[in-house]
Design a protein that fits this description.
heterodimer, A: 425 residues, 1% strand, B: 189 residues, Rieske Iron-sulfur Protein, 3-stranded antiparallel beta sheet, 24% helix, 21% strand, elongated, disordered N terminus
């Protein structure tokens, strides 16, 4: 049978398909027996959680779109109709709205995990950069989605954010008019935002596919930050990590459900239940919580263009981290100084998050300036310099050595890829 | 490159022995494709610019007679608020006095009104920082220290000539194109 893939599946139907299109073989290789470091902690759940979240967002979004009207005079009412009249419309909308927040919680933890354990280092630089692209796409999608209910915060958030582009000299005003499709945020803007809000998640799916494809070339990093040296260091992805991810998914769904059913508007703004009014600006415009750190960076600079550049730069600098960090050791577990400074960075981000939600005056300006300064100092100065001076702790010989030493005996090894004669520990 | 040195027409790039007709055809085909892609992409990009019906709404006529001195109204022009303010003599004086100061965006008060109509200040009511609508068009609202407008979003303050005096806004409130059609009527746009 020349030209057919040699399938190892027994079921005749699966075998028939698999010999012509070996997707079952591929799934088995990439998600069944895929050799995965045996020492993952629960922080390694967050990639899978993000994937689940993306699926939830697309699923609820498709059904919301069936009842939503992207028109400046009808959008607000159609959202209210979804809330009151459409069967389970309230559930779909609350899951979708809070799903956005959950998505950012999950992705921020995923990102912090990568920073802590040095997951961006050689050979995973491209994997990391794809992650930054995913973050940018998520932010664009979330921003445009927030505009769709056409409430006061939607309208004025859209106005403020699109006006950021007017900071660019010469072409700024033309860009803004082009983005708006008019001379202010209006129906044309709402229409295109709806179109792009529907499109970008599928672009996101494409980039996520590349992210995972790159991950399956290099293999996952792990809490020790040392490479897998042989089968004794790994476990097959199924059932070990499918089960571990399932535990994480249950916890994640509990938190998600608490938000949706007990505090569905906790993370939102009451002003967004007032229909958009182009002639009245709300007294206090704040973006959704997940944009607050960036908003704080924007406002900490007294110059308009400077603020905009610094805000975009705060994400751009993440893409450069693989080259800014000069330390050969990945995991912060073996980097005594970096381990502390990582938490200072987290603190700086938390301060920015709080400051972004406060009026830009007094102590809040000072705090956000200090935190902004540390944010850039951390990436642009500390990471390059620290790698040269820090004395890392001794790395363990291998993952299996470290794991078995931790476990105090540990008992017999689980089956699959780990129980190979190479095991000597 | 040994082979390119031996070739009758040495090529500067490595690998290619000589420039062939095929190289030329590849370049022409590539350039043709690029032009074709550009020709179809531009209509898509330009379709996002303001449409004809949006542009058609670009002028507004305002009757000034009901606005007494010290009062201001907001009219909509191209979907944006425009402040039409009937300034009192004191307000004009304050604005003129500030001409000599160092302003963030220098402009004389006279350059921002029509000659002979000094009492009428017409500006686009959108903060030049990030596009909020400043407060102060109603006399009951906060007008800031300079008596003009105050932007609640990021604290920019404008004077009675609509010039930025303090805060993050980089420029004065823009004066839209308008003309007087008689003493009590203007056409904006």
């Amino acid at each position: 049978m020349a030209g057919l893939h040699k399938s190892e599946f027994e079921n005749p139907v699966i075998r028939w398909v698999d010999s012509r299109l070996p997707i079952f073989t591929m799934m088995q290789k990439e998600y069944g027996v895929f050799p995965t470091p045996r020492n993952f902690n629960y922080l390694w759940n967050f990639g899978a959680l993000a994937m689940v979240n993306l699926v939830i967002m697309i699923a609820t979004g498709i059904f919301l779109a069936m009842n939503y009207t992207p028109h400046a005079t009808m959008a607000f009412d159609s959202v209210e109709r979804i809330m009151r009249d459409v069967n389970f419309g309230w559930l779909l909308r609350y899951v979708h709205a809070n799903g956005g927040s959950m998505f950012f919680i999950v992705v921020y933890i995923h990102l912090a995990r990568g920073l802590y354990y040095g997951s961006y280092k050689m050979p995973r630089e491209l994997l990391w950069i794809l992650g930054v692209v995913i973050l940018l796409l998520m932010m664009a999608t979330a921003f445009m989605g927030y505009v769709l209910p056409w409430g006061q915060m939607s309208y004025w958030g859209a106005t403020v954010i699109t006006n950021l582009f007017s900071a660019f000299p010469l072409v700024g005003d033309y860009i803004v008019t082009w983005l708006w499709g008019g001379f202010s945020v209006d129906n044309a803007t709402l229409n295109r935002f709806f179109s792009l809000h529907y499109l970008l998640p599928f672009v996101l799916v494409g980039v996520v596919f590349l992210h995972i494809a790159a991950l399956h070339i290099t293999g996952s990093n792990n809490p020790l930050g040392i490479e897998v040296k042989g089968p004794q260091d790994t476990l097959p992805f199924h059932p070990y990590y499918t089960i571990k991810d399932s535990v994480g998914i249950c916890v994640y769904l509990i938190v998600f459900a608490l938000l949706v059913f007990f505090a569905p508007n906790y993370l939102g703004h009451a002003d967004n239940y007032i229909p958009a009014n182009p002639l009245v600006t709300p007294a206090h415009i704040v973006p959704e919580w997940y944009f607050l750190p960036f908003y704080a960076i924007l406002r900490s600079v007294p110059d308009k263009l400077g603020g905009v550049l610094l805000m975009f730069g705060s994400i751009g600098v993440l893409a450069l981290v693989p080259w800014l960090d000069t330390s050969p050791v990945r995991s912060a577990r073996y980097r005594p100084v970096y381990r502390i400074l990582f938490w200072v960075l987290v603190l700086a981000c938390a301060v920015l998050l709080v400051c972004g939600g406060k009026p830009p005056e007094g102590i809040w300006v000072v705090l956000s300036r200090v935190a902004t300064a540390y944010y850039f100092l951390h990436f642009l100065v500390i990471l390059p310099v620290l790698g040269k001076f820090e004395r890392p702790l001794p790395l363990p010989e291998s993952i299996s050595r470290a794991v078995l030493a931790d476990g105090g005996g540990g008992g017999p090894l689980p089956g699959g890829a780990a129980a190979k004669p190479m095991e000597k520990a | 490159m040994a082979e390119s040195a031996a070739a009758p027409h040495p090529a500067p790039h490595s690998g290619g022995a000589e420039v062939t007709k095929r190289d030329f055809l590849k370049l022409v085909a590539g350039a043709g494709a690029a032009v074709g892609v550009g020709a179809i992409v531009w209509p898509m990009i330009d379709s996002m610019n303001p449409a004809a019906d949006v542009l058609a709404l670009s002028s507004t006529t305002v009757d000034l007679s009901p606005i007494v001195a010290g009062q201001a109204i907001t009219v909509v022009w191209r979907g944006k608020p425009v402040f039409v303010r009937h300034r009192t003599p004191t307000e004009i004086e304050e604005a003129r006095a500030a001409d000599k100061l160092r302003l963030p965006d220098p402009a004389t008060d006279a350059s921002r009104v029509k000659p002979g109509h000094d009492q009428w200040l017409i500006v686009v009511g959108i903060c030049t920082h990030l596009g909020c609508v400043p407060l102060g068009n109603r006399s009951t609202e906060v007008r800031g220290e300079y008596g003009g407008w105050f932007c609640p979003c990021h604290g920019s303050e404008y004077d009675t000539s609509g010039r930025v005096r303090r805060g993050p806004a980089p420029a004065n409130l823009p004066v839209p194109p308008y003309a007087f059609e008689g003493d009590t009527k203007i056409k904006i746009g």
